[in-house]
From TrEMBL:
Cross-referenced PANTHER family: MUREIN HYDROLASE ACTIVATOR ENVC, PEPTIDASE-RELATED
Record Pfam families: Peptidase_M23, SLT
Transglycosylase SLT domain location: 70-192
Domain M23ase beta-sheet core positions: 256-343
Xref: InterPro entries: Cell_wall_metabolism_enzyme, Dup_hybrid_motif, Lysozyme-like_dom_sf, M23ase_b-sheet_dom, Transglycosylase_SLT_dom_1
Protein's name in the database: Peptidase M23
CDD domains noted in UniProt: M23_peptidase (cd12797), Slt35-like (cd13399)
Amino acid sequence: MKAKRGIALTAAVFVVSPLALGLGIILLIAASDDDKGGGGGDFDLSAAGSLRIGKGYVPAQYAGLIEKAAAECDAGLPASVLAAQLKQESGFNPKAQSYEYVKDPATGETIKRPLAKGIAQFIDGTWASSGIDGNGDGKKDVWDPEDAIPSQGEMMCKLLKTAKKHPGYNGSPIELALAGYNAGWGRVDEYKGVPPASFADGQTYNYVKIIMATVESLTAPNTSGDPGTSGGWGRPVKGPLGTPYHQQGGAWSSGYHTGIDFAVPTGTSIHAVGPGKVVAAGPGGAYGNQVVIKHADGMYSQYAHMSKVRVSTGDSVSGGQVIGLSGETGNAFGPHLHFEIRTGPDYGTDVSPLPYLRKKGVDI
Ligand SMILES: [Zn+2]
C-alpha cells in the first residue's frame, strides 16, 4: 500500500489516505471511457519485450536497474511494467517530491507537507516496511534509484505472486498487482479484482489503465516481427507477443485466454495470416470489430478489437493482405490485437495459435 503524490486537499485531519493518487493521473485521464467497472477485459502485456531506451522512453541510466529488478522476480514480472510505473510516478526523476495539503487541527490552517519521495514515489510508511538496500551500501535511501527501484520490484513481485493465487478475480495478475500497489491488496480482495471506476474517483482504476497502456510504449519494437510471408503465411501484425494462449484469469468469460495478444498501438496494420475467405467482418460483441477468415485447410483465424475493418464477408484475401487496423473496441483493456486460431468460425473452437502458425512456416 502506497500513497501517491497527489494534492489531497482534505479536511480529514492528518489522515493520509492510502489513495492520494496523482493529480497528474486524474488530469491525464479526462474521462474514463468505461463504466463497466472492474479491470475486466483483455489486457496487453509484452512480457518478453525488452525496454525501449531513449528520450521519451526509458532513460538509459535506469534501464539496467529496472531490468535487474524484474529479473530478480521469479513470478514473471516484466521490466516494462516497472518502467511504466516509474514513468507515471515520477517521470524517472529521482528527486521527485510530492506534497499533500492537510488541515492543522489546532489552528485550522491548511499546511503543506511532504508525501511521496523519489523515483518510485514511496511514502514514509511504505518505505519503512518495504524499502530495501538494493545496492548494499549499508543504507536504504528512498532518494537513491539503486535502492528505490529494487524495492519497487520486490513489492510488485510479492503482489504479483498474491495476485496469481486469485485466478477468479477480475483482471490479469499484473493488473491486480498494480491495483494492489496503488490501493493496497485489501482493496483488491474487497472488490475481487481491480477496483471499479466508482472507487476513489477512479484513481486506482485509471492507474492500472495508464500503466498498462504505457507498458506498450516502453517496450522495444520487435524488429524481427515483420509480417513476412512464408508460402503466403505470416504474422498477423508487426509487434511483440503479449498475453499468451490459455492464460487463466477472471477477465475472460471462458476462464482463460482463448487466443494470443500482440501489443500494438491503435492503427497498426493487421494482415491476414494466410490466404482464405472472410466469413465475418464487423462488430463481434466482446471482441469488438473483428474479422474471421476461413482457410483452405478448414481452420479459421480471428482478429479482434479492431479500430477499422477493411474487408467484407465473402471477400477472398491473400496471405499478408491488410484486413484492417488494430484498436481497442469491445472488451479490451487498451489497444492490442487479439488473435485466435479456431477449428470453426465461432467462439469456443479455439486452438493454440503459435504451433499452428509455425507449422505453416511462420517464424514466430
Ligand atoms: Zn486477447
